[in-house]
Amino acid sequence: MPSSRLDEGMNAVRTTDGTSRMREVPAELPPIARESEAPRGRFRRIGRMRRVIRPLAAAGFALAATAASACPSALAGRTVAVDPATHGFGAVQKQPPLPLQPGEYVVTIDDGPNPKTTPALLDILRSRCIAATFFLVGRNAERHPELVRRIVAEGDGIGSHSFSHRDFGKLSRDGIAEEIWAGMRAVDIAAFGAFDESRRPRRLFRFPGSPGFAPALPPDLVAIANGAGAIVAGYDFSPEDWRNSPPEESFRRLLARLGDRGVILFHDGQSNTLELLPMVLDELERRGARVVRLAIGDG
């Protein structure tokens, strides 16, 4: 990655994916068909905290609905729930895309939280009355839990982007499982003060990019994530803002790829993204598009 990156501890190229179904009415989360034990050592079970985490997650869902009704916007779209039975979604790595309606887009932001850029990104989203899904790096969440709590409190979605954003192509399968598990644990604790191991599916999870996994994720990696209780969150379009190119260049790159619906990938920790995101939102509004908020099952 370019040395101009502002995010903490990142060192890999970005690509990801999976497959999916969605429904608009949140549902109770059933047990996932395939259970797996946590990796041994520091990732052992720390107890069932369902009564703590689910009410707080539901509170964020309710805040998003309240904020949308109090802040009318041409961009604000519906909240949809990803079916808990799905394994993943996202078309970039040759997986089926989310079944969005024409003109519907999901804004996702990887690599945070970052105190230099996350607050400004949140301010941009609030000014447009829309919600994004932040895929957070576990060790960044540990360093800046106040930013994770702000993301949740303002009604944005959260997912995990591994614990340390290592190149998974250089890790053993056990090492990958530990990175997934530790990342979800760190994000949950930062957001809610506890980690509920029994919640299945627990979180959306986005793989860090790895040249060794292009153009598609190996099926066994998707199975590892699913076994840990995660839905693999891919994407459909990226401006490759991690390059920290001038925002106009990133904007042109995205427009050349943008279809009539899908998941857009942005990156936290990039100075150009603070200018790029409003440009993209202006373009979506010009097209009469809507920004959709994602949730899993009960939100």
TrEMBL record:
Residues 103-292 form the NodB homology domain. It comes from the Bacteria. One of its GO terms (biological process) is carbohydrate metabolic process. One of its GO terms (molecular function) is hydrolase activity, acting on carbon-nitrogen (but not peptide) bonds. PROSITE patterns: NODB (PS51677). Belongs to the polysaccharide deacetylase family. This is Chitooligosaccharide deacetylase.
